[in-house]
Design brief:
69% of the residues lie in helices and 0% in strands. It has helices at residues 10-25, 34-38, 43-67, 72-104, 117-121, 125-132, 145-163, 169-190, 201-226, 230-246, 255-274, 288-293, 296-316, 324-359, 368-371.
């Protein structure tokens, strides 16, 4: 049976991407420097897309190279067991939240549209957002658009990679890059929010590029990445992080259409800087950020629910977010509660389904040597 490779540092990077989104949704204005980290929180979602493009492409192409085909039902079941349980639970909580808030006398937001259970439960919330030009008025449905895009990507990518040969993958990736750019031009012309697969497909393609090279060229590609000088890798990492922080405060001609390419390419280079097994640029699995990164899915889904509920309780108690002390306490409390809920959720909701997922057979390998062509698999 094929053993999946574990990539170091990815869990920590997931956590940092979530943290960027979390800070965006914290309504704190008491610290002017806070805006440096708060603005541009959407880049966290962009990184999730690029990383998904890498991981899903690597999984599918590795299986196709090893066995000659892709187990479509197995892949679909594994993705469903990973995504659906927590997603459906949180969407259900969203529809119950208005009742709970009403009983607590905390008021209800009228901003946005009333959610529709069919659109929410069938991963079509993002298209409802496009059609209305607005967002759902209950948490956390507003952040589920990215999960809808991810789900649509899984299905489209499974079909595409199953249907075409390895040598034609570069043409597919180039087509996706051009499609993403063209789709954003159309959406900008129509003033539609870019929350669908077509306007984000190039992010996934940027992540798929190193995955394709890793599978196609194996040890040779990883060796070339390994010999890149450490100062150059650190320079790339620092440059990407600096642009992520500076982007909301920098304007230049064509930024609306050029910046997605900059982010996609930058995150692609970031992934390439850390994927070799033997690498000085790494964040160990025992690191606190890597440990928290295991719970990123729950953190991402629960955080707006916690923030908005606590915000109402905070206001009802008479506390102000203009005061640095109370604003700091609010931020830390939101993070602590979100983390606690995510840990419990992972243990009792996600983990049982993940264990079922790991029991599903993986692709049989025709050639065992092919499995470790570029590196011995890390622990999974």
């Amino acid at each position: 049976m094929q053993q999946r490779r574990h990539f170091h540092s990815f869990d920590a990077l997931r956590f940092f991407a979530f943290l960027k989104v979390f800070l965006l949704h914290i309504p704190v204005m008491a610290f002017p420097v806070f805006n440096l980290f708060r603005e541009g929180g959407g880049t966290g979602v962009v990184f999730f897309f690029v990383l998904s493009g890498f991981l899903i492409t690597y999984i599918l192409l590795e299986e196709k190279k090893a066995s000659g085909t892709i187990g479509r039902q197995r892949f679909f079941l594994r993705r469903a067991l990973r995504i659906w349980p927590l997603y459906f639970l949180v969407v259900g909580l969203a529809f119950l939240s208005s009742i709970v808030v009403g009983h607590l006398g905390l008021g209800h937001s009228n901003a946005g549209y009333e959610p529709n259970w069919f659109m929410s439960f069938t991963f079509l919330e993002n298209y409802r957002m496009i059609a209305t030009g607005s967002h759902p008025n209950v948490s956390p449905l507003g952040v589920t658009w990215s999960l809808c895009v991810e789900e649509h990507f899984y299905l489209a990518w499974l079909f595409l990679l199953y249907s075409i040969s390895l040598k034609r993958i570069p043409f597919l990736l180039m087509g996706c890059l051009l499609t993403g750019i063209a789709a954003r031009f159309v959406f900008a012309w129509q003033d539609w929010p870019t929350v669908d697969l077509l306007t984000n497909i190039d992010y996934f393609a940027f992540g798929a590029m190193p995955a394709y090279a890793l599978v196609r060229y194996g040890r040779d590609f990883e060796r070339k990445l390994s010999i890149v000088p450490l100062p150059l890798k650190l320079f790339v990492v620092c440059l990407v992080l600096a642009y992520v922080l500076a982007s909301p405060f920098v304007n230049y001609p064509g930024k609306l259409h050029l910046e997605p390419v900059v982010f996609g390419l930058g995150f692609c280079l970031l992934i390439m800087s850390i994927i070799p097994s033997k690498n000085s640029v790494r964040i160990g699995d025992g690191n606190l950020f890597s440990r928290l990164g295991k719970y990123t899915y729950g953190l991402y889904l629960y955080h707006t629910l916690v923030i908005n509920l606590l915000l109402r309780l905070w206001s009802k108690a008479g506390f102000s977010l203009e005061d640095p002390v109370t604003a700091g306490a609010f931020t830390l409390l939101c993070f602590a509660i979100t983390t606690g809920i995510s840990l419990i959720s992972y243990r009792f909701i996600e983990l049982p389904f993940l264990r079922w997922k790991e029991r599903l057979p993986m692709a049989r390998n025709k050639d065992r040597e092919e499995l470790t062509a570029f590196a011995a698999p890390d622990r999974s």
